[in-house]
Specification:
Blueprint (H helix, E strand, L loop, with lengths): L6 H17 L3 H12 L5 H18 L6 H11 L4 H18 L4 H12 L10 H14 L2 H17 L6 H10 L4 H7 L3 H18 L5 H14 L3 H17 L7 H10 L2 H18 L2 H17 L3 H11 L8 H15 L2 H18 L2 H13 L3 H15 L5 H17 L3 H18 L2 H13 L17 H11 L4 H8 L3 H15 L7 H7 L10
Helix pairs in contact: 1-2, 1-3, 2-3, 3-4, 4-5, 5-6, 5-7, 5-9, 6-7, 7-8, 8-10, 10-11, 11-12, 12-13, 12-14, 13-14, 13-25, 14-15, 14-16, 15-16, 16-17, 16-18, 16-24, 17-18, 18-19, 18-20, 19-20, 20-21, 21-22, 22-23, 22-24, 23-24, 25-27, 26-27
C-alpha cells in the first residue's frame, strides 16, 4: 500500500492490508489502514466491505450491541454485490446482538428478523445460509422451531472439507463469534461440539488468525472442562490468555469463569466472578453476565448452599443465552429442589423438558432424567436416576455423569440404602477427585462419611506437580513438536521451552522426550484423598 502511487489501487490495497491486520489481532493498526482506505475512491462494494471491517473493529473493542447496527448496515449494502458475504455479515450482526444479550435484549430479535429476511443467492444454500436460518429462527420462532434448521447447519459444517464453500464460509469460521461449534451445546450434541471446536482451533492456527484463535481455544477449553479434563482446559485457557496479552487484546474470560467455579474455593472463585461481572457491565456484554450467574450457581450447588445457587441460577435464566440457557435451567432445578423451593424447580424443569425433548440426544435426555428424578419419589425416582447415568455415560459430558452418580447416591442414602449409596458415591468421589472439582469433591466426601465410609486425610500437594504451562509444554513435546514449534504455538522462545522441559524432566524423573508418553499417562491429575 505504501509503495502504490495510484490512488484507487492504493485504497484497495489499504483495505486489504486493514483486513489482514485485523485478522492478525492488530485492530488499532487495522483501524488506521481502514481510515486511509476511507479517504480514497472506493467503489460501492469496497465501501460495504470497509463498513463490515469497521463493525468488526468496533465489536472487538467492546462486545456490546454497539456493533449490531453497523453490521446490519454493512450487510444491506453488500446485498447487491455479494449475497453470500451479505448473509455472513447478517450472521455477524446476530452475533454482536447475542453478546450484548440481556443488556440490549430487543436488538437480538431485530437482528434476527433482518437476518431472516435477507435475500439468498442463486445457488443452493450453503453452511452460512443454513446457520443463519437456524440462529435467526431461534430468536424469532423459539427453541423447538430452530432445532431442525440448526441440526442441518451442524451436519453441513461437519461434512465440509473447508474448501468447497469459498472465502465467505472460511471467513465465517475465522471471524464470527456465533461459530458453528457453539451451536453444538445449544443442541446438546456433544459429538458435534467436540469435532467442530477442535476443527475451529486447527483452522485458526493454520490461518495464523490471532484475532480469533483465543476464542477458539477458550471454546475448546469448555469442551475439555465438560469432559472433566480440567488440566487440559486450564492449559488452553493459559494459551488463549498468552496470545491475547501478546497481541494487546483483552483475555477471553468465559472458560476461565467456568473453570474456577468447578475447581477453586469459594473466595478465589467469587473474586474472579465478581471481577468478570464488573467488566461485563462496563463493556455492555450481557452474555458474560449470564455466564457469571451460571458459574456462581455451579459453585454454590457444589458447596451445598442451594438458596444462593438458586438465586444466581434464576438471574441467569432471565435471558436465553445461546448455547448456555439449558445449563442455567439445569442448575435451577437442583438448587430449587434442594433449597425447598419446589415451585421454582418445577418451572425450570418445564422449560428444560421443552428443550431436551426437541433434540432427543443422550446428553439432553440424561440431564432431563436427572432433573426429573430430583422431583420424583420411590421407584420412579430410581428409574430416572439410572436412566440419567446410562445416557450420560454414553456422552463426553463426564462432569454431569459424576453429578448424576452423586445425586443418586444422596437419594439412596436418604432411602436408608447405605450400601447401595456408598457404591454410587464412591464412583462420584473418584470422578470428582480425578477432575479436580473442589466443592463437589467435598460435598461427596461428606455424603460418603455419612454412610460410614472412611476417607484418608487430604495430603498437601506434591512439590513435583507440573504447573499448567509445564503440563502443556510436556504434552506438545510428547506429541512430537520441536522446541521451535512449541514456542511458536505458545508465543515463547525455544530457549524458554527448553528451560521448562528441563523442569518437567526433573519433576517426572525422566531424561528424554521418548519417556514423556508413559510418564504423562501414568501421572495422577490430582493429589486428592484416597478411599480406604
Amino acid at each position: 500500500m505504501e509503495l502504490t502511487p495510484d490512488p484507487a489501487l492504493r485504497c484497495t490495497r489499504s483495505l486489504a492490508a486493514a483486513q489482514a491486520k485485523f485478522e492478525a489481532a492488530a485492530p488499532e493498526a487495522a483501524y488506521q489502514l481502514a481510515m486511509a482506505a476511507e479517504l480514497g475512491p472506493l467503489d460501492e462494494f469496497d465501501r460495504a466491505r470497509l463498513a463490515r471491517l469497521h463493525a468488526h473493529i468496533v465489536f472487538t473493542r467492546s462486545r456490546s450491541g454497539e456493533a449490531t447496527p453497523l453490521f446490519l448496515d454493512a450487510a444491506k449494502h453488500l446485498e447487491p454485490h455479494d449475497a453470500a458475504l451479505a448473509r455472513a455479515t447478517y450472521l455477524e450482526a446476530l452475533a454482536a446482538a447475542i453478546f450484548a444479550g440481556r443488556l440490549d435484549g430487543k436488538t437480538v430479535r431485530d437482528a434476527a428478523e433482518a437476518a431472516h429476511a435477507a435475500p439468498r443467492g442463486p445457488s443452493l444454500p450453503g453452511q452460512t445460509d443454513l446457520l443463519l436460518d437456524g440462529v435467526s429462527t431461534r430468536f424469532t420462532a423459539g427453541y423447538a422451531a430452530s432445532v431442525k434448521p440448526l441440526q442441518r447447519a451442524l451436519r453441513a459444517f461437519q461434512a465440509d472439507d473447508w474448501g468447497n464453500q469459498g472465502d465467505a464460509t472460511r471467513q465465517l469460521w475465522l471471524a464470527c463469534p456465533v461459530a458453528p461449534e457453539l451451536v453444538g451445546p445449544e443442541l446438546w450434541d456433544d459429538e458435534a461440539w467436540h469435532e467442530l471446536s477442535s476443527r475451529a482451533v486447527r483452522l485458526a492456527r493454520n490461518a495464523g488468525a490471532l484475532a480469533v484463535l483465543p476464542f477458539a481455544l477458550a471454546h475448546r477449553a469448555v469442551v475439555h472442562l465438560q469432559a472433566g479434563e480440567f488440566a487440559t482446559a486450564s492449559a488452553l485457557i493459559d494459551e488463549a490468555d498468552a496470545i491475547a496479552r501478546a497481541t494487546g487484546n483483552a483475555p477471553q474470560g468465559y472458560a476461565s469463569l467456568m473453570l474456577v467455579a468447578w475447581r477453586d474455593d469459594e473466595r478465589q472463585a467469587m473474586k474472579s466472578i465478581d471481577a468478570a461481572i464488573r467488566t461485563a457491565t462496563a463493556k455492555g456484554e450481557g452474555r458474560a453476565l449470564g455466564l457469571a450467574g451460571y458459574a456462581t450457581a455451579v459453585l454454590y450447588n457444589g458447596l451445598a448452599r442451594y438458596d444462593v445457587a438458586l438465586d444466581h441460577a434464576q438471574r441467569a435464566c432471565e435471558y436465553e443465552d445461546l448455547g448456555m440457557f439449558g445449563w442455567y435451567l439445569d442448575e435451577s432445578v437442583e438448587a430449587g429442589v434442594r433449597s425447598g423451593n419446589r415451585d421454582a424447580a418445577v418451572a425450570a424443569l418445564a422449560r428444560l423438558v421443552e428443550m431436551t425433548d426437541a433434540t432427543g440426544t443422550d446428553w439432553a435426555l440424561g440431564i432431563q432424567a436427572r432433573s426429573r428424578a430430583l422431583l420424583s419419589e420411590g421407584d420412579a425416582a430410581e428409574r430416572l436416576y439410572r436412566e440419567a447415568i446410562e445416557r450420560l455415560d454414553r456422552t463426553r459430558i463426564r462432569v454431569e455423569l459424576a453429578r448424576a452418580h452423586l445425586l443418586y447416591g444422596e437419594w439412596l442414602r436418604r432411602e436408608n440404602r447405605r450400601v447401595d449409596a456408598r457404591d454410587q458415591l464412591r464412583t462420584a468421589y473418584e470422578m470428582f477427585t480425578g477432575f479436580g472439582a473442589g466443592a463437589f469433591t467435598e460435598r461427596t466426601s461428606r455424603e460418603l462419611r455419612a454412610t460410614g465410609e472412611t476417607l484418608a486425610k487430604r495430603t498437601a500437594a506434591t512439590p513435583t506437580a507440573l504447573t499448567a504451562q509445564q503440563a502443556q509444554i510436556a504434552r506438545l513435546a510428547r506429541d512430537g513438536l520441536t522446541n521451535r514449534e512449541i514456542g511458536a504455538q505458545l508465543f515463547i522462545s525455544p530457549h524458554t521451552v527448553e528451560w521448562h522441559l528441563r523442569k518437567v524432566f526433573a519433576k517426572l524423573g525422566i531424561t528424554s522426550r521418548r519417556q514423556l508418553r508413559s510418564a504423562l499417562s501414568d501421572r495422577p491429575s490430582t493429589t486428592a484423598p484416597r478411599l480406604r
